[in-house]
Design goal:
Chain lengths: ~325, ~450
């Protein structure tokens, strides 16, 4: 019986002692908890939505949604908040995954927010990353969403480290880190009044390494740019940015053909690549385990604006 | 920005098993050094990334700190750094070659007790930080008391600021004796006390030359040796499956999705569905990945029953013979988190497992005096108070005593107007309290 359940759980060489109780491992516990959170949100909220950027964390979330709700359909649509500055490999992946899943995808467009005069296009060379908050809040209002399920993790940033699994947003979409709801045990309560909403983070307790180990265990398909490849890049603000229609070398910047991969995937104007030869999961996991630079520290210009850049963005409605 | 080949902060890329994962909460009074201790622990075990260290040292310099303020590792909010205090729990993750850790750095202020309870509610162990110069404070006692009520059975006490206490063994002994006495009265299973200086790193990860009179473990060694995994199993009540979600299979039939607690649910088990009381047999247990012969506690599974009976979200599936009592009357130990005191006649919503139902306060029986650990008659509980409350619920609840099962023995109280979570309840009287006047 013991051997059977280890095999059924996909345990790799963590066989239980003879006669002992089967032991779910660390990833099983994280998976089971994330599934539990998703089901609670789906059951307690009237109109949830699953945020899907095409990055690795949302790829994991999507697999967890399958585990939580199949053979049924997802009890929520998926939504991509699209800055218009995408890596084509990521939008291709997004469309492929959505087709495979046969679920509904909504696209909330930052370009439309700009065209509608809701936000101003940043000055030349600037990033649209921060504008996503307005587009997201507009989409929440338009569709009447009362919960957004996202892939943010507490190990990413010191402000995220403070956030609840179900995180309350007031009628203005604001996070108030000084006045969060108590959240004891696994009693996630999702009651909000009209106009208010929740952000739900099933991957709260996952680390970057957990995500990669899970991707390996589950054979999760990811956009190709997560794996080492050659592409033209420019060094800017201590990061390697991919040359694209929105990132062109300026005076004094040199384009270099480098072997890189992406550790996070976001808006192309503020997501940096890292030099890497890791072309497969084993290589990436070894690299992540040995890294001396944090995931966002290596790759995200948006966190470098100030000491509390993430907290400030979150307060105004960012993911 | 390239990945370097420097020594790994996570020496093993392997996957830890449940018992190789320790969840702990740092608790204790404000300014006794919880955040600094956690910062020191992460720093000296090389869990901090270069860019995080750089950001912390820049922030420290900006605020006139000599060197780096290790509290900034977890005090990440603007207001926390401005005030030099912890407002809400910070969760950090660490790994050594022996174990993975989930760390909840809790705030010490009385005002933020609700956040401390949040952090301690899922902990296997509490690291109690005590200023060795000033000794145990009321807030230290309150935190230990709440941790014990929440089911934390192991305390690791850091007698901190030993440098300021002149490395005096007597100061350390005084802390160890006081906390030992408190722990005995709280019925805690194990207490380890370590003399430390979180500021300088003595006995946190590396043994200190300043404490030749101490031959116990460092904080890290004690964390690596402590019993783990108690939280994940929920208790020893026998298996329970609170139904979260009813799955209608396209091929016909229904299954019931939820997380198992309290024991292992097996195919073929005779079960009862509560509160209705219908009986059936577990016909199938499966996940997305296929069927399972049995589901241990803490797994999320789908269960099918042999009979076509009415089962809905909020119902509890338990094995016949080990099922909990079902009643609309509830006596519980409540931690109160609202400015408006709780008293007889008030109405709330209760969330118990996956069910939300209206509840009325029949009476507030008593309030726990944190200093004496005595229950004293009281008609209400004020903010941050702990006491015994009797409730009646609109729908009968299938509840275990909290000491038997943390999942089916816990609930929260929700304000009907604001939806705020105003109280946390544990079914049964506090196991730690002593009769008045003893």
């Amino acid at each position: 019986m013991t051997a059977t359940i280890d095999a059924a759980l996909g345990n790799e060489a963590t066989g239980s002692p003879a006669g002992g109780a089967p032991r779910p491992d660390h990833l099983h516990l994280l998976e089971a908890h994330a599934i539990f959170v998703m089901r609670e949100v789906a059951a307690e909220c009237e109109r949830p939505v699953l945020l899907f950027s095409g990055g690795k964390d949302s790829a994991v979330l999507t697999r967890l949604a399958e585990k939580a709700f199949r053979p049924g359909r997802f009890p929520f649509p998926m939504m991509h908040v699209d800055t218009g500055h995408n890596f084509p490999e990521v939008t291709d992946y997004r469309d492929r995954r959505v087709a495979e899943l046969d679920e509904e995808l909504l696209v909330a467009s930052v370009q439309e927010s700009i065209d509608a005069g809701r936000v101003a296009e940043p000055v030349a060379g600037g990033s649209r990353n921060r504008l996503q908050s307005v587009t997201l809040l507009d989409a929440i209002a338009e569709h009447g969403f009362d919960a957004c399920i996202g892939g943010a993790r507490r190990d990413e940033d010191k402000a995220r480290a403070k956030e609840r699994v179900l995180s309350f947003r007031d009628a203005f979409g604001q996070w108030d880190p000084r006045n969060q709801r108590p959240e004891l045990w696994h009693l996630y309560q999702g009651r909000v009044r009209p106009g208010e909403h929740l952000r739900a983070f099933p991957l709260s307790d996952w680390t970057e390494l957990d995500v990669w180990q899970y991707v390996r265990r589950e054979h999760i398909d990811l956009p190709s740019i997560y794996y080492a490849h050659r592409r033209p890049v420019v060094a800017r603000d201590g990061m390697l940015l991919a040359v694209s229609p929105w990132v062109a070398p300026t005076a004094g910047e040199e384009v270099e053909e480098a072997t890189v991969r992406f550790r996070t995937v976001g808006d192309a104007t503020c997501t940096g690549a890292v030099r890497s030869e890791a072309a497969d999961l084993e290589g990436i996991i070894a690299e992540v385990a040995a890294s001396t630079v944090s995931e966002r520290g290596a790759t995200r210009a948006d966190d470098k604006f100030s000491e509390t850049a993430m907290e400030d963005r979150k307060r105004e409605g960012y993911f | 920005m390239a990945f370097s080949s420097a020594p790994s902060p996570v020496p093993s890329a392997g996957v830890a098993t449940g018992s190789d994962l320790l969840r702990f909460a740092a608790i204790g009074s404000v300014d006794d050094g919880k955040s600094t201790l956690i910062g020191r622990l992460l720093h000296d075990t090389k869990q901090l990334f270069d860019d995080q260290l750089e950001a912390i040292s820049v922030a420290s310099r900006r605020r006139g700190v000599d060197g780096i303020d290790l509290a900034y590792v977890t005090d990440g909010l603007r207001a926390e750094r401005e005030q030099g205090i912890t407002i809400d729990v910070a969760y950090r993750y660490a790994a050594t070659p022996h174990r993975k850790f989930v760390i909840a750095d809790c705030p010490g202020h009385v005002q933020y007790t609700r956040n401390m309870a949040t952090g301690a509610s899922t902990a296997d162990l509490a690291v109690v930080v005590v200023d060795a110069v000033s000794g145990l404070r009321e807030q230290t006692r309150r935190h230990c008391c709440i941790a014990a009520l929440l089911g934390v059975r192991h305390l690791l006490v850091a007698a901190n600021k030993m440098d300021l206490a002149g490395w005096d063994e007597l100061a350390f002994r005084a802390v160890a004796d006081d906390i030992g006495e408190l722990a005995r009265r709280l019925h805690v299973e194990s207490v380890v006390t370590v003399p430390v200086s979180a500021l300088h790193g003595d006995n946190v990860v590396d043994p200190s030359p300043n404490t030749p009179w101490y031959d116990g473990p460092t904080v890290l060694a004690a964390l690596e040796q402590a019993p783990a995994g108690a939280w994940a199993s929920g208790g020893g009540s026998g298996p329970r499956l609170p139904v979260q979600w009813v799955v209608r299979n396209p091929a016909g039939g229904r299954s019931y999705a939820g997380m198992v607690s309290g024991g292992t649910l097996r195919r073929g088990d005779e079960v009862v569905v509560l509160p209705g009381g219908q009986q059936s047999t577990v016909a199938d247990i499966r996940t997305f990945d296929g069927p399972l012969p049995e589901a241990p506690a803490s797994l999320s599974v789908n269960v099918s029953l042999a009979d076509d009976i009415d089962v809905a979200r909020g119902d509890l599936i338990a094995t016949v013979g080990s099922a909990p009592p079902t009643s609309p009357e509830l006596e519980a130990t409540v931690c109160w988190f609202s400015d408006r005191p709780i008293e007889a006649g008030q109405q709330f919503r209760v969330k118990h497992t996956t069910r939300v139902t209206p509840a009325r306060v029949v009476s507030v029986e008593s309030r726990l005096d944190v200093a004496s650990l005595e229950l004293r008659p009281s008609p209400h509980l004020a903010d941050n108070d702990i006491g015994v409350v009797r409730l009646v619920t609109a729908t009968p609840l299938a509840a275990d005593p909290y000491r038997v099962n943390r999942v089916t023995g816990s609930f929260v109280l929700i304000d009907e107007a604001t939806n705020a979570t105003v109280g946390a309840g544990m079914v049964g009287a506090p196991a730690i309290a002593e009769p008045r006047g003893s």
